[in-house]
Amino acid sequence: MKEKQTLFNYLYESLKEQTLTGRLQYGEKIPSMNSLCEFYHLGICIVKNVMRALKLACK
Fold it and tell me: Which domain of life is it from (predicted)?
C-alpha cells in the first residue's frame, strides 16, 4: 500500500528536487511565498513551514 503524502512533504520534496537537479540554481531567488501558494494551491501556513524546514536543512 502506498503511503499518502502530505501537502507539506509534497512541496518540500518538490523544492528540494528542483534545487538538487539545478532547476533552482544556487543563489537564485526562489518564488515568493504567495507565488508558491498560488502555483501549488496551498495555504500560506504550509508554505511558511516548508520554507522554515528548508532553511534549517541548509544549516
Answer: Bacteria
Separation between Cα atoms, residue 48 and residue 33, nearest integer Å: 7
Instruction: Give a yes or no: residue 1 inside a domain.
Output: no
Give the count of domains, the chain.
Answer: 1
In a domain, residue 41? The reply is: yes
Give the pTM.
0.83
Please report, as a single letter, which amino acid is at residue 11.
L
| Main-chain phi, psi angles of 29, to 5 degrees | -70, 135
- Give the 3-state secondary structure of residue 21: coil
For the stretch 6-32, pLDDT in tens is 999 999 999 999 988 999 887 888 899
CATH number, domain of 16, equals 1.10.10
